[in-house]
Design goal:
elongated; four-stranded antiparallel sheet; 6 strands; two-stranded antiparallel ribbon; 80 residues; mainly beta; single chain
Amino acid sequence: MHYSTIKPIVDEEKLLIDKGSLKTKRKFAFLLEEGDVILINRTMDVNEEVEVLIDYSYTEKSKRPKESINIYKIKELIKE
């Protein structure tokens, strides 16, 4: 590995989800790929663990409480 930081180029989106339905997995930054959806948008160290969105639910007619979150879909990864 000839780089120490990763800077993601992302598309930002806001989601309305059922509170508590967010499912993520932890992944080392050097394992991130284009198309992954992450919850942070900043430069990362290669060995830093990052939460990647796997799934969530939103039920329109349910009375479950809702929450709004920002997600970032990776378009490109710059390795420095």
